Every structure is written in structure tokens, then in C-alpha cells.
Amino acid sequence: MNRIVVAAAIIDDTSRMLLLAQRRYPPEVAGLWELPGGKVEDGESRRSALEREIAEELGTAIEAGEQVGAAVVLRPGLELVALRARLAGPPPRALDHTALCWVDAGRLRAMAAAGELVPADTAWVPDLLELLA
Ligand SMILES: Nc1nc2c([nH]c(=O)n2[C@H]2C[C@H](O)[C@@H](COP(=O)(O)OP(=O)(O)OP(=O)(O)O)O2)c(=O)[nH]1
């Protein structure tokens, strides 16, 4: 069966900004920016897995919603899915990442063009730009 990695597109509706997290490991992607998340465990829904990962990685709560864009195949048997989310707890902290940042549409476009995003996540940039418009 396919394993799923879920990632959160956490958008602040007031500022129209998206939260990005800078990976600490592995070396191939260390320093690049991603949507925070992790693997869905057996018996978990995607939404509850994402809520758990965000509590672990960012020390806060989210409400996870609809899927953003298409699923990305990371390797055979492993798919990456982004879910839209809104913050429902204290400001996020980088417990597992090097840093966090809130970006607007222009900054996201510039980071994608500069190759600063984890490669798999670049597929979602048009969808994310639409959500930030
Ligand atoms: N969380 C997350 N992982 C991503 C993204 N893009 C991307 O290619 N990945 C890859 C990196 C990893 O191979 C895999 C998830 O790794 P992870 O380290 O975040 O998840 P995890 O904590 O559940 O995994 P593990 O370290 O326990 O194996 O998905 C993304 O936007 N967010």
C-alpha cells in the first residue's frame, strides 16, 4: 500500500501569508524550504496525521482542510499530499526545523525561482499562489 506524507499549507487569512519551514536534514535538502508535515501512520486520517505532526514540529495546533494541488510521487510507494490549514494555536516554533518564515505571493514566487524550495514542493507553487492572491 502507498505511504502518504502530508504537508500543511498554513495560510494566515488576514495577512495572506504562507508558513514555510527550513529543513535541517537530510543533507540533500538541508537549508531548503518546505511545507511542514510528515508521514501518515497506520490507522490515522491525513488530517489527524497532519495535526499531530504540526504539534510535534511546530508546537502549535492547526485545523487541516482540503487538499492543495495534486499529489506528488516522491518515490514508488510514497506520495506527498498538501492540505490547506489554518493556525488554531500559539505562534509556531521551529522545534524540528532550522527556521520558519511567513511569505507572501511575491516572496514565494522568488524563492521558487531561486531554487530555495524542496524540489517536490515546486509543483504546488501555482496552487499556493492562487490561495495567496
Ligand atoms: N514534511 C514534508 N516532507 C517533504 C516535503 N517535500 C518532500 O519532498 N518531503 C519528503 C522529505 C521526506 O522524504 C518525506 C517526509 O519526511 P519527514 O521527515 O518530514 O517526515 P517524518 O518525520 O514522518 O519522517 P521520518 O523522519 O520519521 O522518516 O517527504 C514537504 O513539503 N514536507
How would you portray this structure in words?
The protein is an alpha+beta fold and 133 residues long. The protein has one domain: Nucleoside Triphosphate Pyrophosphohydrolase, CATH 3.90.79. 23% of the residues lie in helices and 38% in strands. The chain contains 3 helices and 7 strands. Strands 1, 2, 3, 4, 5, 6 and 7 form a 7-stranded mixed beta sheet that branches. A hairpin with a 4-residue loop joins β1 and β2. The longest helix is centred in the middle third of the chain and has 13 residues. The N and C termini lie far apart (37 Å). The model has no long low-confidence stretch (mean pLDDT 97). The protein binds 8-OXO-2'-deoxyguanosine-5'-triphosphate. The site of 8-OXO-2'-deoxyguanosine-5'-triphosphate has 13 residues, from β1 and β4.
Gap between N and C termini, in Å?
37 Å
Give the domain tally: 1
| N-to-C order of helices and strands | EEEEHEEEHH
Output the CATH topology.
Answer: Nucleoside Triphosphate Pyrophosphohydrolase
Catalytic activity: 8-oxo-dGTP + H2O = 8-oxo-dGMP + diphosphate + H(+)
Cofactor: Mg(2+)
Pfam families: NUDIX
Family: Belongs to the Nudix hydrolase family.
Secondary-structure blueprint of this entry?
Layout: E1 3-12, E2 17-22, E3 33-34, E4 37-39, H1 46-58, E5 62-75, E6 78-87, E7 99-103, H2 105-113, H3 125-132
Parallel strand pairs: 1-6
Antiparallel strand pairs: 1-2, 1-4, 2-3, 2-7, 5-6
Helix pairs in contact: 2-3
The structure holds 8-OXO-2'-deoxyguanosine-5'-triphosphate (8DG).
